[in-house]
Amino acid sequence: MLKKIYHWTLKKAEHPKAPLYVMGLSFIESIFFPIPVDPALVVIGAAKPKKAIYWCLLAAAFSVLGAAVAYFIGLFFWDSISPFFFEHFISQEKFNTTTEVFNKYAFASMFIAGFTPIPFKVFTLAAGASKLNFITFIAGSALSRALRFGIIGIFFYFLGEKAKDIIEKHFNAITWIVGLLLVGGVIAYKMFSH
C-alpha cells in the first residue's frame, strides 16, 4: 500500500499543477499522511530547477499550516484519537517519554522532528496533546521545514538535474547528520552554559 502511495505521489509531482499537489501533500503529511514530501519536491525540482526554491518554501509553509492543525487536533481531541495513535504510530510509553523531552527542550525537539526523517506527524499531534507552547512549536516547525525543504530547492536551483541523484542517494544521511550535530550542539550548550 505504501509503495502505491509513493508512486502516486511521484506521478502527481510530474503533473502541470504539481505545486498544488505539493501544497496539499505538505499539509496532510504533517497531520497523518505516511509518505514524506521530499520525493515530490525532488521530481518538481528536476523538472523546473529555477522554480525549485519557490516551490520548496511553499511546501514548507503548507507543512507548518498542517502542523498547526495537527497541534490543535492533539490539543482538543487527544482523548478521542489517542487509542488509534498508540496503535498505529507510537506506543504510550514512548509517547510519555516524548512529552517529557518536549517539556525540557521544546524548540530543539520540534526542530529535530521537522528536519530529520523522524515522522513529523507524530510530533505535531504529540505537541498539542502535551500542551507545548504554541509559539515555540511553530518557530521550531517553521525553521526546520524551511531548512529541510530549502536544501532541496537550493540544490536544484544551482545544480539542476544533477542534484536529483545526490539527494535521492544521500538525503536521509544528510538530515540525520545535521540533526545529530544539532542535538550535540544543544547538549554542549546546556553543559557549558551553567
Task: Please provide a brief summary of the model.
It is built from nine helices and no strands. The chain has helices at residues 2-13, 18-29, 38-47, 52-88, 92-104, 106-115, 120-129, 134-159, 162-192.
The total strand number stands at: 0
Radius of gyration: 17 Å
Mean pLDDT level: 79
- Derived from helix and strand composition plus strand pairing, the structural class reads mainly alpha
Strand content: under 5%
N/C terminus separation? 50 Å
Q: Which parts are unreliable, with pLDDT below 50 for 5 consecutive residues or more?
A: none
Q: What sequence of helices (H) and strands (E) makes up the elements?
A: HHHHHHHHH
| Whole-number total of structural domains | 1
Helical stretch count? Answer: 9
Residues in helix, %: over 70%
Shape: globular
**What's the main sheet like?**
none
Notes on the structure:
The chain is mostly helical and 194 residues long. The longest helix is centred in the middle third of the chain and has 37 residues. It has one domain.
SSE order and pairing:
Blueprint: H1 2-13, H2 18-29, H3 38-47, H4 52-88, H5 92-104, H6 106-115, H7 120-129, H8 134-159, H9 162-192
